[in-house]
Amino acid sequence: MRYKAAIFDMDGTILNTLDDLTDALDYALKETGHACKYDNRMVAQFFGSGVYVAIKRALSIENGFPADKLDLIGTADEPDDCFKDDSEIARISEIYRPYYDAHCDIKTGPYPGIIDLLKKLRESGIKTAVVSNKPDSAVQTLVADMFPNSFDFSLGEKEGIKRKPAPDMVNECLRVLEIPREDCVYIGDSEVDFATGKNSGMHVISVDWGFRSHKYLTRIPAERIVSDAEELGNAIMN
Questions:
Q1: What DSSP designation does 69 have?
Q2: Residue of 105, 96, 14 whose CA lies nearest to 54
Q3: What DSSP string runs through 97-133?
Q4: Distance between first and last Cα of the chain
Q5: Closest CA to 10 of 123, 135, 94
Q6: Deepest in the core among 1, 117, 181, 224, taking most CB within 10 A?
Q7: For residues 132 and 13, what is the distance between their CA atoms, to the nearest angstrom?
Q8: Planar angle of CA 136, 137, 141, nearest 5 degrees
């Protein structure tokens, strides 16, 4: 099947944002008196479901929550023993968000082959979009800086629209693109992205170069897993 539109997640899918995410989270946690200095591998487990959940996961680890259950935090199956103080999460978020907005493009860059892939898709008449749980301000900055004229639509987390894995953000994208969902594919690197595509009634392609390992994706189980941009292009166009 040749798709008419490809909708991409951002973090871990088209952009390697881990260094900047790690630095911003470290700064916000340090400023509020919490444990910090998490490495990229751990921070990758924190993110995927938005800033609120990422901070909640970090604070849960600080309080002894098991790392192998982190992906349950922020879901309907969230354990009772994770961090629950919403006011403290909000306090840290108020420091994290402006700091990340101002430093989101310092160490961040596209994954190998992504810029060429986007060019080929658009030259072939396939529309492209970004739908991410990253704050919308950062999404718009990074799209403009890293991918000028590469996307027909971009949307990050913002008030008034439910974040992924709810289908609301994708539905808004489809409305703007004016393409039926059966002609679109969602591409991401995590369990949240897989659920987003399924909740939106779309096929999903998972990439294994991002925040989740190939082994983890096979346990979801992902619909289709690709390992480089060329393989992803073939999956979209052929």
A1: G
A2: 96
A3: HHHHHHHTTSS-EEPTTHHHHHHHHHHTT-EEEEEEE
A4: 6
A5: 135
A6: 117
A7: 10
A8: 115
Q: Is 216 in a helix, a strand, or coil?
A: helix
pLDDT at 115: 98
Could you tell me which of 121, 131, 205, 128 has the C-alpha nearest to residue 171?
131
Contact 204, 238 (CB under 8 A): no
For the chain (length 238 residues), average pLDDT per consecutive 10?
A: 93 98 98 95 96 98 96 95 97 98 97 98 97 97 97 96 97 97 97 97 98 96 97 96
Whole-prediction pTM value? 0.95
What is residue 1's predicted lDDT score, i.e. its pLDDT?
65
For residue 113, report the phi and psi dihedrals to the nearest 5 degrees. 85, -5
Q: Helical H runs in the chain?
A: 18-31, 40-46, 51-62, 86-103, 114-123, 136-146, 168-177, 191-199, 214-219, 229-237
160: left (phi over 0), alpha (psi -120 to 50) or beta: left
